[in-house]
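Sequence and fold
=================
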Amino acid sequence: MAVPPKILIQTAQLVWQTLWRTMMAQLAPGDRSGNFQRVDSQFRQQIGTETFPAAPHRYRLYVGLICPWAHRTVITHVLKGLEDCIDLKVAIADLSVGGWRLENDPTGCRSMQELYRLGQPDYTGRYSVPVLWDCQNKQIVNNESAEIIVMLNEAFNLWAKYPDRDLYPAHLRGEGDRLNELIYRTVNNGVYRCGFARTQAAYDQGVTELFATLDLLEKQLGDRRYLLGDQLTLCDVRLFTTLIRFDLVYHGLFKCDRRRIRDYENLWGYVRDIYQQSGIAATCPLQTIHREYYQSLFPLNPGGIIPIGFDITELTIPHHRG
């Protein structure tokens, strides 16, 4: 096979690298060292205030099922039994609109971009999910998943099917908040620091910190069922949505390939444990997650080829963590 001329190779590299950097700057903002910098959520109001009182049938939760941040809110919505209190609306990742598309939405909006601008006409930030929406005032209450799940756990207990299920117990909050900070920085956001790194040094740092934390969590789960003991908490919900995507997506597409979650005895059992709990598997459309990540993140997979993945029925193997 003839090798392309040197000038052709160099030109192709220059063009592709320039285009790649341009697309990555739009997809995943970074600092001067090439580290991915997640943009802070801009809507941070709370349920329980005069403006946004707790009430049934007033709020709607917009989510994208492939998004791990939105997935947290869906799981909390299920665990608390809020189906009859807070409407759930699924947005669809759509490259043709460059974001999240809405179908037959009660607001008349056709995308999350339109919804954001309905709530705040001069908004110019990112049009992300999840969003907790006030249907009465047509305003965004909050678009920070870590805060939405706390509100879902506490603010709607009068109408929840499982009001006594406390996923954020007061006596565990100190330990849980400290662990959440580590997990967010090195795992939840850590996989994106690996996948969206724009320099070798940024990637090396991200992947080293990621697997150092996974090793730590593997050890911690050796003598307890969940991260904080025998009780499932929001700490577990926040970790689970990353781990359930790890072998399907992050291991390959995001270059988090030092080990798979299935290579960790305790972490793999822990993932199966949570997945097999009532209502959780239905929130995990794994085939869709697998396909959409590889199709929608074009700069990471320009050929559009979707790998075969692993047999997701392995998630139903008994975990023996009870």
